Amino acid sequence: MQWARRPSQPRPAVWARRATPPGAFLTSCPSGCPGRRALRCYKSSSGHRPDCGLRLASHRLPGQRGPRKDCEQVLTHLSVQRKVSASTQNQAKSALLFLYKQVLHKDLPWLTEVVAAKASRRLPVVLTQREVRDLLLQMDGTMWLAASLLYGTGMRLLECLRLRVKDVEFSRREIIVRQGKGNKDRVTVLPENLLAPLHAQLEKARVLHDRDLGAGLGEVYLPDALAVKYPTAPRAWGWQYVFPSPVLSDDPRTGKRRRHHVYEQSVQKAVALAAKRAGIDKPCTRHVLRHSFATHLLQSGYDIRTVQELLGHADVKTTMIYTHVLNRGGRGILSPLDAL
Length: 340
Description:
One of its GO terms (biological process) is DNA integration. By secondary structure, the chain is mainly α. It has 15 helices and five strands.
């Protein structure tokens, strides 16, 4: 039996025109710019290519359509043909805006006036305390410690993996989150049950760091050009990652051989595998642990302002989404069926 190949979805003509090699726009982004990661994740995770065609903006011939027409065509294609969610549409718009401003150095004031797609209000997936316990029991080692920190502190995944040794305060039972979402610092709680495992993790990291120093390496990436201001800081123990990678790698920005932190997809895969082994039917990702942290704090009677500060939300309205757990059953009512 011969299977017919499903025809591929048509793409806008603007995506078919390509003047530079794929991915070349990333090399044009300023080094250390936070938008580099956003564009890279957007291109790899969704399969969309916001750089295609738009790179022709600086090489257009007279009479060709301008960037406004191309951007509108790309955004329309995503919403009509691809039928992507509102968050994906807004992500594409942000990627286009960053591309023109930071890479092509062109000001497009009309792009900021494009109405953003209205996202549907969804309740977050939350695990019960029993489900969290069963999930963590299926993990061990570094992955267990990272997942336990996500649930015990409410940190985001990259905030956890980018944690430095100097930002763990054992005496005050707190963790300082540096350069979180919105480039803001905050303080969160350090669970007492993780004090001993964290000490053991730091001992393993110290062994790796001493080995790297003996080999003439041992440098770590520092943000905001701190390595220029403090030349010895990249080798200092306090600046090392709590979760260093087991392998060395070459920094694509400088070419230096360094030890980065644990790859984030390693934790994501470990959490997904543990949820499958624990028999959890809910969609379980690493961010579900952060949702569960906030929900269980509210269930324990903590003030919503306290939870807001621990999560690092700029607006309390973002934290208010977790208050649905305070309602017993369906909005806290007694079903008439139960009264029969």
